């Protein structure tokens, strides 16, 4: 089967600085890869590459067997949260609809019924039907985030890229979103690349972790990567990784990362 | 003569036709102008259209006013379109160019020795001076703007209201920004010749701002903005004929009243939604 993502010898440079180099990563359909690392380690940049917005400095990148292409219908994207002005003329259903055909030029007359149906379905998936007619700018961060996920899923993507999608959601909503993503990859074989500061909410569904620190990285199952030894190597300082019940707690290198609590960045 | 008699006159009919076309364009572009936070750059574009028109009048005479306004407006709109999204930088550049344009315009006008009606028209409008040729030009240009706008509307809306996501989805955000600036420049240049530089804002901003108060649907916002703009222009022309005064104060006042009413309705709507949310969350 064609891997959803195939990176080999990938190197990314930004502003004259090499963020990471020699990255080899195959992501299978339906696989859940969690990307961790401190700010500035190039987590979001990885998504930018996969979206086809930034070329690699070296190496190759394939998404579903071909070079990443801007605006590919096969890639869904949940961006980092941005605030929307309260008076923006945009309702929940409009935001989701833009994810489906917002990039398309031409008159919007074809396939209206189908469009309405798919938007409705996407809203239903994230339990956000009641937000369909609400102005996006008047919604809470969590409500906007659910719409963003619907916006990313409405095109029925084979690959979903999510940048801190749990940020500003309460625990119950976090769980809903994680369950939703879990169902999505199980039922539709959608591969998920999930960038976050906080591993614990997605620990039960994470197949592999990509941990980026200062151009160094480790890839493996959470058990392989989230060890005192590995993280101490990555951070080049003493880091203790402790399992407490079903959570992983990282102690040390606090100035570099926010691992516990899931609070604001 | 009664208003009805006046309406049967050719020049009045021309004025009304021109007003209808202009209001349609302004109403359609307005919500995007508001969505992109471009009110100030519309004002800047209008002043440069004024300077361009005044310069053309001085050098080439009355027939060149339209072209001068068009060149001034489109050039500066392109420049504004190419300025990024950083609000502060944008505001100050617009402020610098706006005041310079206004200064130039006033200079050109003081040097002009022809009829004074030609001078003030660019600032406060000279809709009664519109002839059949003007209406045809306006309609022709209007149709072109409409067609281009219809084709790019959806990605333009995406790029204006949700820019980061639009860029990630492959929408050519920068190209659209420049293209929209040209559409806007053309519309402003037409508007300056009819309602005047000082009043272009009240057709491009006020109706759309009013619509944004009462609906969050982008389609309905466009429809309402067009309706509001049409009401302001047609109402303004008819009222000015009746009173024998320039149309500007009437257009501006009608648009303003519509805005105030919509704002009140909007406040009511927000309060009702807040109550509903409070009830729902207990």
From TrEMBL, chain A:
Annotated ABC transporter domain ranges read 5-239
* Annotated keywords: ATP-binding, Nucleotide-binding, Transport
**PROSITE patterns reported in the protein's UniProt record:** ABC_TRANSPORTER_1 (PS00211), ABC_TRANSPORTER_2 (PS50893)
| InterPro entries in UniProt | AAA+_ATPase, ABC_transporter-like_ATP-bd, ABC_transporter-like_CS, Metal_Ion_Import_ABC, P-loop_NTPase
Q: Which Pfam families match?
A: ABC_tran (PF00005)
Query: Where are the bilayer-spanning segments?
Result: none
Q: Which GO terms describe its molecular function?
A: ATP binding; ATP hydrolysis activity
Name assigned to this protein: Zinc/manganese transport system ATP-binding protein
- Organism of this sequence: Actinomycetospora succinea
Specify the taxonomic lineage. Bacteria, Bacillati, Actinomycetota, Actinomycetes, Pseudonocardiales
UniProtKB/TrEMBL annotation, chain B:
**One Pfam family cited in the UniProt record for this chain:** ABC-3
Query: Where does the source fall among the domains of life?
Result: Bacteria
Q: Which controlled-vocabulary keywords does the entry list?
A: Membrane, Transmembrane, Transmembrane helix, Transport
Q: How does it sit in the membrane?
A: Multi-pass membrane protein
* Subcellular location per the Swiss-Prot or TrEMBL entry: Cell membrane; Membrane
- InterPro entries in the record, alphabetically? ABC_BtuC-like (IPR037294), ABC_TroCD (IPR001626)
Question: Which protein family is named in the record?
Answer: Belongs to the ABC-3 integral membrane protein family.
Q: What is this protein called?
A: Zinc/manganese transport system permease protein
State the organism's lineage.
Bacteria, Bacillati, Actinomycetota, Actinomycetes, Pseudonocardiales
């Amino acid at each position: 089967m064609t891997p959803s993502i195939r990176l080999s010898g990938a190197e990314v440079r930004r502003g004259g600085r090499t963020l990471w180099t020699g990255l080899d990563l195959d992501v299978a359909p339906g696989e859940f890869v969690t990307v961790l690392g401190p700010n500035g380690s190039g987590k979001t940049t990885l998504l930018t590459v996969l979206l086809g917005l930034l070329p690699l400095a070296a190496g190759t990148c394939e998404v579903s067997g071909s070079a990443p292409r801007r605006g590919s219908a096969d890639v869904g994207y949940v961006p980092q949260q941005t605030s929307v002005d309260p008076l923006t003329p945009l309702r929940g259903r409009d935001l989701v609809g833009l994810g489906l055909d917002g990039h398309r030029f031409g008159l919007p007359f074809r396939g209206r019924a189908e469009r309405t149906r798919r938007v409705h379905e996407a809203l239903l998936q994230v339990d956000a039907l009641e937000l369909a007619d609400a102005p996006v700018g008047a919604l809470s961060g969590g409500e906007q985030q659910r719409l963003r996920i619907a916006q990313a899923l409405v095109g029925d993507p084979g690959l979903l890229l999510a940048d801190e999608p749990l940020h500003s959601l309460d625990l119950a909503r976090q769980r809903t979103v994680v369950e939703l993503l879990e169902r999505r990859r199980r039922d539709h074989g959608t591969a998920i690349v999930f960038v976050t500061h906080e591993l614990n909410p997605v620990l039960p569904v994470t197949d592999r972790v990509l941990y980026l620190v200062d151009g160094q990285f480790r890839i493996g199952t959470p058990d392989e990567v989230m060890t005192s030894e590995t993280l101490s190597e990555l951070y080049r300082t003493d880091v203790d990784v402790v399992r407490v019940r079903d959570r992983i707690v990282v102690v040390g290198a606090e100035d570099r990362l926010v691992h516990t609590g899931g609070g604001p960045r | 003569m009664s208003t009805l008699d006046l309406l049967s006159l050719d020049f009045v009919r021309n004025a009304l036709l021109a007003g209808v076309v202009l209001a349609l364009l302004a109403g359609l572009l307005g919500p995007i102008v508001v969505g992109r936070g471009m009110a100030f750059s519309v004002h800047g574009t209008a002043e440069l259209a004024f300077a361009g028109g005044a310069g053309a009048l001085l050098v080439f005479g009355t027939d060149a006013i339209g072209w001068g306004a068009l060149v001034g407006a489109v050039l500066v709109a392109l420049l504004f379109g190419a300025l990024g999204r950083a609000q502060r930088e944008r505001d100050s550049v617009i402020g610098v160019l706006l005041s310079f344009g206004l200064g130039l315009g006033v200079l050109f006008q003081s040097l002009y020795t022809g009829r004074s009606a030609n001078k003030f028209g660019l600032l406060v409008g000279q809709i009664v001076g519109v002839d059949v040729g003007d209406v045809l030009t306006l309609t022709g240009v209007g149709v072109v703007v409409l067609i281009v706008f219809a084709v790019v509307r959806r990605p333009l809306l995406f790029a204006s209201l949700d820019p980061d996501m639009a860029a990630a989805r492959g929408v050519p955000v920068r190209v659209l920004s420049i293209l929209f600036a040209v559409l806007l420049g053309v519309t402003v240049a037409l508007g300056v010749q009819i309602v005047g530089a000082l009043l272009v804002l009240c057709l491009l901003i006020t109706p759309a701002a009013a619509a944004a108060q009462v609906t969050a649907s982008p389609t309905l916002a466009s429809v309402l903005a067009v309706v509001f703009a049409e009401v302001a222009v047609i109402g303004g022309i008819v009222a000015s004929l009746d009173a024998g005064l320039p149309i500007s104060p009437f257009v501006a006042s009608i648009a303003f009243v519509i805005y105030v009413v919509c704002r009140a309705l909007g406040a009511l709507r927000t309060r009702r939604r807040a109550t509903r949310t409070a009830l729902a969350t207990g």
